[in-house]
């Protein structure tokens, strides 16, 4: 029986592992297909404290992994296919192994919805982005397109006006879903313009960077090329909860519900990072809640064993 199994190897999972490992819990991290998580999709992380010159996402993953292993984290490069988290003994299965643990930390992240057009995957991190806070700075004085018509598209589009020369919102309908106040702010902003009734059929580039889009008007059928420097896609996120959704309570947006100590509705089951955070979705916030989950698992295991908790968490 293991003390703790951590599902997911992004900033949240590895930070939970560092804390759990340093508390002698010998955590097992099951990495999933995306070793290192979403940060590995970017070549430039400039907002993670401690790296004043920025850092490639893959380099960051390797540092996280090294630090977690230094304190005794065990890593399994596999995918969890089934869990039973409802009992005192937590069951976690991969295709060919079954593990038992006293506690489980869920750190499976959330995936930005893709447009699903040619060029999109090829140019992620090279002009295709899903996060204005992360990448807006790279588009200073450039012309960028925002895709989407909801609150996050307008919110992030308005944020981009701090950097970009021009922000064009392309929407497949002739009106937006976003709140009226955000719409007013966008309509009033001289850097923002709109292309209505239009879908993106392809993202094109020169091999290194995005250079333009192929667009089609859904009403007239008219198609054409549209040169741009970058495209920000805000059409929603899928929290990766399929494995857990019948056991763990979710919020109205399908993110795992946690209290402020990363506890779920199931005792001994904690969730951290983007899978329980529909608001910030940053590497540093994921790492922050990973720290909380690691400390909470430590406390839970210590209490199960009748040991006084060695840390100083409040007991409320
Ligand atoms: C292109 C891009 C650029 C970004 N740039 C920045 C930036 O500059 N700065 C910043 O702070 N943030 C950035 N972000 C956001 C940041 O990457 C995320 O907020 C962060 O990675 C979330 O960490 P996480 O650990 O919660 O989840 P993730 O990083 O999403 O990791 C989830 C982990 O769960 C694993 N997993 C999923 N399902 C299973 C399963 N069934 N079994 C086992 N494992 C599973 C995956 O393999 C993965 O390892 C960017 C995101 C993207 C997509």
Describe the structure.
The protein has two domains: 2-111 and 237-304, 3-Layer(bba) Sandwich (FAD/NAD(P)-binding domain); 114-233, FAD/NAD(P)-binding domain, CATH 3.50.50.60. The chain contains six helices and 17 strands. The protein has helices spanning 11-22, 57-70, 132-135, 151-160, 180-188, 283-304, and strands at 2-7, 28-30, 74-76, 82-84, 90-93, 98-106, 110-112, 128-129, 143-147, 166-170, 192-195, 198-205, 210-217, 223-227, 230-233, 237-239, 269-271. The strands form four sheets. Strands 1, 2, 3, 4, 5, 6 and 17 form a seven-stranded mixed sheet that branches. Strands 8-15-9-10-11 form a five-stranded parallel sheet. Strands 12-13-14 form a three-stranded antiparallel sheet, with no helix packed on it. α1 (11-22) packs parallel to α6 (283-304). The structure holds flavin-adenine dinucleotide (FAD). The site of flavin-adenine dinucleotide has 40 residues, from α1 and α6.
């Amino acid at each position: 029986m293991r003390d703790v199994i951590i599902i997911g190897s992004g900033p949240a999972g590895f930070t939970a592992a560092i804390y759990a490992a340093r508390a002698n819990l010998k955590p097992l991290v099951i990495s999933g297909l995306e070793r290192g998580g979403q940060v590995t999709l970017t070549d430039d992380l400039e907002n993670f404290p401690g790296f004043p010159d920025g850092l490639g996402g893959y380099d960051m993953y390797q540092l996280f992994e090294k630090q977690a292993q230094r304190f005794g984290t065990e890593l399994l490069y596999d995918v969890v296919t089934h869990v039973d988290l409802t009992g005192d003994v937590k069951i976690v299965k991969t295709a060919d192994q079954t593990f038992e643990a006293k506690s489980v930390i869920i750190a499976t992240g959330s995936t930005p919805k893709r447009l699903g057009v040619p060029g999109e995957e090829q140019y992620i991190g090279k002009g295709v982005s899903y996060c204005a806070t992360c990448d807006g700075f790279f588009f200073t004085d450039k012309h960028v397109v925002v895709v989407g018509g909801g609150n996050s598209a307008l919110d992030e589009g308005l944020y981009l006006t701090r950097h970009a020369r021009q922000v064009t919102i392309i929407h497949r309908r002739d009106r937006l879903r976003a709140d009226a106040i955000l719409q007013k702010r966008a309509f009033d902003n001289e850097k923002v313009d709109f292309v209505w009734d239009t879908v993106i059929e392809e993202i094109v580039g020169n091999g290194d960077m995005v250079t333009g889009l192929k667009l089609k008007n859904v009403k007239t059928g008219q198609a054409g090329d549209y040169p741009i420097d970058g495209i920000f896609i805000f059409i929603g996120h899928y929290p990766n909860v399929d494995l857990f959704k019948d056991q763990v309570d979710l919020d109205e947006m399908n993110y795992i519900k946690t209290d402020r100590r990363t506890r779920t509705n199931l005792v001994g089951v904690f969730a951290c990072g983007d899978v329980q955070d529909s608001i910030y979705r940053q590497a540093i916030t994921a790492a922050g809640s990973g720290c909380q989950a690691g400390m909470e698992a430590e406390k839970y295991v210590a209490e199960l064993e009748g040991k006084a908790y060695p840390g100083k968490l409040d007991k409320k």
